[in-house]
Amino acid sequence: PRFAIGESLILETSETMRALADFFDVPELAYFSSENYVSHIGTSHGVKRHFSFLYHDPHQQTHNLQHTLQAVIPKQPHGHELHLYRQDSDYFLMTTAIAYGAVVLQNTPVKDVTIRPEGVEIVATDGRTFAADYVVDAGGFRSILADKYDLRDRDVRTHSRAIFTHMVNVPCYHEVSASKRAYGLPFRVSEGTLHHVFEGGWLWVIPFDNHPRSTNPLCSVGLMLDPRVHPLREDLTAEAEFWAFLETFPAIQAQFTSARPVREWTRTGRIQYSSKQVVGDRFCLLGHAAGFIDPLFSKGLYTSLMTAGLLAHLLLEAHQTGDYSAARFEPLETLTLNFIRTNDRLIANSYKSFGNYKLWNVYTVLWLLGAYTELIKLHSAHFQAVDRYSYFAQVASLKLVGGGFEVFDRVAAVIDTIIDQVDPHDEAAVDRAVAAIKAVFAGLDWLPLPFRDILDGKNHLPANKLRLRLFKPETGFMGRGSYRRHFFGDRSLADVVWAFVQEELKYSRPSLALKHRLDYATKRE
Q1: What are the boundaries of each domain within the chain?
Q2: What is the pLDDT of residue 524?
Q3: Partners of 222 in the beta sheet?
Q4: What letter would DSSP give residue 8?
Q5: Which secondary-structure segment (H or E) carries 457?
Q6: What is the 3-state secondary structure (H, E, C) of 389-418?
Q7: Which of 70, 193, 487, 498 is the most exposed place for a label (fewest CB within 10 A)?
Q8: Alpha carbon 100 to chain centroid, angstroms
Q9: Region 153-167 average pLDDT
């Protein structure tokens, strides 16, 4: 367990955690899905009440308050989300795996993997060998199997490189800029994941010290740059390049005047890659071994958890039948590559829209809509499934965003084509593109009203998501026609409301605390 990119949770990740906890009967998998679990997991993690985006122009001395978006995360029914201090969260999950029977060999580098029809042999650098029926390569971009079988695919659209570290003395942005009230936001920007956005890149600020119970003074800071716009400064160290870059953006630089790094800076070249193949006979690539795009929108952990869940499901079946063929694990390849390709398209066009605030402002609504519909489908699948077989039958066809709704896929294709074709520096062309995208959204009777408000100039989603209008039979959140059938099936409004109430009771702090005490008492008997 150590520092890792992937510190900011999203609703889709948290819901996947809860589903996996239920269907695999491992309650600890849900412990990082909500701030309500802080008493279970410790106080080194931050809270996340929103995504906030502040758009900047070069040499801007103060931030333009109008160029702001705060996507508030709903508190009901599960509580707000977390910023994960990965060395602690990963250590907790590793020891949990050991408690369930896993054998963990730390500091055991793998030298080679040999796959034969009858099984797998793994050779460690110290000479030890291990036999297995199946091998899962979760080794990230240094994947042994991806290198051995020439599986890497570099034909992806996104171009970005990274400079990142952990820091102390990073203040809330409101302390160096305008107040929360002046911005008109529901929450301080330090209460969630802050993204400073500009042409050719963005900078993340992920604090772990942003709530009263925190005992961790650190803040994760990372700069993502398109090398075609901002080439790597080989004449500078990683730290020197970071500080030099901020000189171009004084309104961002102000947040880091007193900041100090607490670990070595990491600087990368271009970080994007995918795989031509994800599964083979007796092996698969998992998580970042299969591909990586960019941490914008924090989709990485969702991808890793959903694919890990599907893999676990398929492995349990393979253990019963003895069939470890590539064909048997083909659903994992389909899901993995769908997630990677969708994320690549979403992030590549986000970077392009960074070139003009008007484009970025409307493209964020496609991101919001994709995340919202994906979450609705995940909730629906979890609620309707009677076991892991029926659950994975519903989610295996997802594509990261849109919840598998074909109408969304068509809408996204139209909007992405518009973004592909526009020059962000041609103001007349941008105005036409923005008008065309708004017209697409205007034609959707299932577009949530808060997203329409963003298109009309509002800078945040509401903190309280519950409104009476949501429960209207034809125009409420359940929609109608193909939308309602896809996301809710034959469930009634009463069914959905009852499920919501059950979830709020189950995941409330008092309920979780009581269950934890009872479980502890049972273990001591």
Answers
A1: 11-92+157-267
A2: 67
A3: 164, 204
A4: B
A5: none
A6: HHHHHHHCCCCCCHHHCHHHHHHHHHHHHH
A7: 498
A8: 27
A9: 98
Euclidean distance between CA atoms 351 and 197, whole angstroms: 9
Angle at 56 (CA atoms; ends 52, 60), nearest 5 degrees: 135
Strand, helix or coil for residue 294: coil
For residue 481, which amino acid is it? G
Separation between Cα atoms, residue 125 and residue 417, nearest integer Å: 49
pTM of the model: 0.95
Cβ–Cβ under 8 Å, residues 304 and 287: yes
Residue type (1 letter), 431: D
Q: In angstroms, what CA-CA distances link 408 with 93, 115, 398, 411, 415? A: 35, 41, 12, 5, 11
Q: What is the pLDDT of residue 516?
A: 87
Tokens of 51: 């995504």
Name the helix (H) or strand (E) containing 317.
helix 300-321
Three-class SS of residue 224? strand
- Listed residue (249, 233, 231) closest to 241, CA to CA: 233
With a pLDDT cut of 70, the percent of the chain lying above it is 98
| Joined tokens for residue 254 | 């102000």
Average pLDDT estimate for 325-348: 98
At 464 the pLDDT is: 75
The pLDDT tens digits of the residues spanning 502-512 come to 999 999 999 99
DSSP E strand stretches across 252-303: 260-261, 266-267, 274-275, 279-280, 283-285
Between 406-421 and 357-384, two packed helices, what is the crossing angle to 10 degrees? Answer: 160
pLDDT at 435 over 90: yes
Q: Helices 406-421 & 330-353, crossing angle to 10 degrees?
A: 40
Query: Which residue is it, tokens 């009476």?
Result: 468
Q: How do residues 63-86 score in pLDDT, each as one tens digit?
A: 999 999 999 999 999 999 999 999
Instruction: Say yes or no: domain 11-92+157-267 is CATH 3.30.9.100.
Output: yes
Question: 267-280 pLDDT, tens per residue?
Answer: 999 999 999 999 99
Token pair 């309707």: residue: 384
Q: pLDDT confidence of 466, banded at 50, 70, 90?
A: low
Structure tokens at 367: 């991101």
Lowest mean pLDDT segment, chosen from 77-86, 97-106, 424-433, 482-491 = 482-491
CA distance 398 to 47: 28
> Residue 190 CA to chain centroid, in angstroms?
18
User: Phi first, then psi: what are they for 70, rounded to 5°?
Assistant: -120, 110
Handedness of CA 347, 351, 357, 359 (dihedral sign): negative
Q: Which tokens hold the place of 84?
A: 């994960």
Token couple for 29:
């998998």
